[in-house]
Amino acid sequence: MSETYCGKSCQTCGYRAETSCRGCLEEASRECKLALCCRQKGHKTCDSCTYNTQCGMYRGRDTAPQYRLAQKKAELEYQQELRERGSFLAKWIWVLFWLFIPANIASVIVQWMPSIQVVGYLLDFACGVVYGVVLLRIASRAEGYRWAGILILITALLDGGAIFISNEALALTVSLCSAILSFFSCYNEFNAHADVLAGLDNELSDQWRKLWKWMLIATIAMIVGVIFTVIVIGALVFLAAIIALLVIGILKLVYLFRTAQTFQDVAAR
């Protein structure tokens, strides 16, 4: 009886040890597609198959072990690259997550503690700069991070400079430019998060893209509310938009946590 379905000798195969091949006649061995074909069709060897002269698997039987070995090596390399990417992104996305705490403290100081308002502005500036630098640090994984980082750094500089502008009209113009840049930085950041998650957690990837759409809708609603704020409906729209943006900010924090956790899990595989 033949050692193999295709007629080759297991003893002379130089790839058997390297591929941990148990031999294709073993029922537990499922790596060889040609052996699987013979089992499914009830053939003891390929010689009993009327299509063996036209069969691509049969003609490629001599190179099949090399191909399977190359597949295994490619899979191992991919898993290693995935772990390295997971470790890298988890580390820096956790930084983005924890930056939310001092950033929110800065906002509270600016809004509610006028006596130490300068401290709030400085803290907000520092958080913005660090956030932008971190995004630039991970820009090699998604181009959107690069643009988001650049825009956030410019926004931080504009916000910091606006403090020292005494002319109200100019200060308002600078603040408006800062808000526009911040809006587009969110677009790039959210979509970059979605891009790096694609294939790992498609549900969370889609949620990042939806969050951007909701932010767009809430921003448009806020602008409409400001324009028509002289009437009651305009004021209500503006209020609803502000609440929506606060909710979006909370969801961003939640999604950052889940994103960092996803990559941490990938790194631990």
Structure in words:
With 269 residues, the chain is mainly alpha-helical. The chain is 74% helix and 0% strand. The chain contains nine helices and no strands. It is elongated, with a radius of gyration of 30 Å. The protein starts with 15 loop residues before the first helix and ends with a helix.
Features:
269 residues; mainly alpha; 3 domains; 9 helices; elongated
Q: What percentage of residues falls in helices of 4 or more residues?
A: over 70%
Rg from Cα = 30 Å
In one word, what is the shape? elongated
Regions with little confidence, pLDDT below 50 for 5+ residues? none
Overall average residue pLDDT: 83
What order do the helices and strands follow? Answer: HHHHHHHHH
Distance N to C terminus? 43 Å
Q: What class do helices, strands and sheet pairing give? A: mainly alpha
Number of strands: 0
The total of helices stands at 9
Number of domains: 3
Instruction: Report the portion of residues in β strands.
Output: under 5%
Q: Describe the sheet with the most strands.
A: none
Task: Describe the secondary-structure layout.
Blueprint: H1 16-19, H2 33-41, H3 56-59, H4 64-112, H5 117-137, H6 143-162, H7 168-197, H8 202-227, H9 232-267
Helix pairs in contact: 4-5, 4-9, 5-6, 6-7, 7-8, 8-9
At a glance:
The chain has nine helices and no strands. It is an all-alpha fold.
